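FAQ: What does the model actually see?

It sees only this:
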Amino acid sequence: MASGTETKQPARLTLEQQRAQDAWRCAGQYKNDKEPVIVAKSLPALIMNSGLMQVLAFCHEKGGAYEVVAQQLRAWLNKQVNGVDRDPGFEIFMQDLMNAPPRHYQAITAEAFAWLKWLRQMASARKGSD
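And it is asked to produce this:
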């Protein structure tokens, strides 16, 4: 029933849309730097082989583009887990992961894979487009 006074509510985004939107925003920060794109493409395989905490430690130690992508990943995961849209920092995030129950750790790792899937695609798509 149309009353004429209805206002359109913005559609709620699905989690996949939110991931895509965040990955798009993050990939836009790479400008014409190819290294973060390469890192974004490599992280899922590294996590698969070594685990999330080991890869985050590796990225922190390597610095540069690795740390940039790791910061973006930590910020996304922190938003999903704690509802806070910012990077909590390497040490705090690692402490949280070390103290997480196994199911929670697995869920965080699964979310990391899901977000990185979008990031690797968006980073490739935006490479050199802005």
